[in-house]
From TrEMBL:
This is Enoyl-CoA hydratase/isomerase family protein. CDD domains: crotonase-like.
Amino acid sequence: MTDPLLYRVDDGLARITLNRPQRMNAFNAELAYAWADATARATTDSTVGAILLEGEGRGFCAGGDVVDMATRMAGASDIERLAKVINSGIVALTSSSVPVVAAAHGTTAGGGLGILLSSDYAVIGTDSKLGSRYANIGLTPDLSVSAQLERAVGERRALQLLLSDRLLPAREAVEWGIAAEAIGEGDADEIGTAVRARAEEVARFWLSGAFGAYGQAKRLIRSRPDRTFAQQLDEEARTIAEAFGGPEAQGLIAAFAGRSGAR
């Protein structure tokens, strides 16, 4: 039996690969539990400085596997329990101080949008399409889509996407702020390869610099809704003071001071 998810760590980069290409990497129970385990490992491993999310096959993620739900699950309680397992992985990623990049080639739909939005920087292909399409099968948003989409694109655009069956082309997905960039030329395989390479380049950039500072910047933005404006300023002050006293900043500040003094 093929593993529904692949996980490996290489020089500080944790790579989480959704591996159900025959089902567009849609979540069934096996993938859900593997996802929860992998995200927990990646966000608690002190050797991990960046995380890359990707999908095998011709698309990133189609959300939940509706056929599997209909044939293998007893009822609403099973669906809710499975959603909560997947949600635990989303919370692990978004609440951590580890920056996350997504390589989202091909189609991303339904709950796959929530997985994509769990990244802090998303690279998509020029041929990518992103959409909701929950109502097409009588379902409602899940896997953090209603929580994260509005923050990413604003209330009106979130409603436009959720209340239609549109699939946004890559250019609009970038314009709306769902993705950071759309890249690649040629056929689908060539574009997918380019997307994965660019996403790894982003992750390696973080790892080659002050990845601790990047991670704390991510945490400050992600956790902002938990604090008032004044509390956010206090948290910024506490965080920069803590960073200033750390070896990462001290080395970089000394190098900057040396360059400045040489002018």
